[in-house]
Amino acid sequence: MANSNRRSMMTVYSDPSCPFSHRTRIVMQEKNITANIEDVIDGQWPEDVAAATPYGTSPVLFERDIVLFDSNIINNYFDERFLQPPLMPSDPASRAQARLMLHRIDKDWYSLWNSLLGIEKGKMSKARKTVQEDLTVLAPLFEQFEFFMSNEFSLLDCSLAPLLWRLPLLKIKLPPKAKAVEDYAQRIFARDSFQASLSDVEREMR
Description:
The chain is an alpha+beta fold and 206 residues long. The protein is 49% helix and 8% strand.
């Protein structure tokens, strides 16, 4: 969706199939942020957007003179700028624990994304097994609270939800002992903010 006034209003360039863009769209819906979302496909970026990020990955945020890339950085910016509802704990110790888990989610699972998609040849089967086994081992964590590690919806849920939504696409089936993960996922998927965050491409993934 093109908008010639993107410099004068908040604009997020988002790949409609990208899990990193998806988690930023979830944050935007949770906080009811008014912004222009423009679909971009990696490798087919407008020249000025491509020049703004050294890594060529979405999402990218333009707001007046601010340009931010990396979904975690953008999500934290949104959480600090738009205070309600808060998506991180208020006390430093709990906030640090949440950030540590966000780091683990990226390092342990999202780092495997190219392997899961088959872009890195010969690694797909091992990557699928890693995600399946890790989620199964962590299943008890999903039973302790309504949301992941908390009774309040947080950036952890925003980060996990796109991965869980894509499990059928990635041909990852969780065993019965991971039912708590499936139950958690259905609670998240039922949220109005999650449904509103889905692109047409993502809706077709299930």
